[in-house]
Amino acid sequence: MNTDSAVAEGVRTTIAAYAQALDDGRTDDLVATFCADGVCELPGFGTFEGHEAIAAAFAKWKPVRPQRHLVVNTLISVRQGDEVDAVSDLLFTAHDGESWTVPLVGRYHDTFRLVDGRWLIARRATQFEEG
Hints:
It is globular, with a radius of gyration of 15 Å. By secondary structure, the chain is an alpha+beta fold. The protein has a six-stranded mixed beta sheet with strand order 2-1-6-5-4-3, covered by helices on one side. The longest helix has 21 residues, at 4-24. It has a single domain, classed as Nuclear Transport Factor 2, Chain: A (Roll), CATH 3.10.450. The chain has helices at residues 4-24, 27-31, 50-59; strands at 34-42, 46-49, 67-80, 83-95, 100-115, 118-128. The protein starts with a helix and ends with a strand.
């Protein structure tokens, strides 16, 4: 079924799987949210293309303390065939041993592609907010 609600649910499921895998340090599960030729752009860190490059980058950034990427306000704006664009707001929270802080706020600009019945990240460009 490819109704708009099914597309939205599939995209949101992938976003949640990415965030939880990232916060848990499960690199293989994080990489599985990307298309094989997927691209991940992180300001200040680089652009990583393909599963191998994405895995190598995120393997170096496994969390050492509790953290959460809270992704909200996802707006799916364009659909063309088996691809959709979405923009989501991001709050990164981290526990410093005593309390939770919000050291980072940003936005994901994503393109998702339908691959074998799953909406996967074809391109993720992260934008960090100054402040």
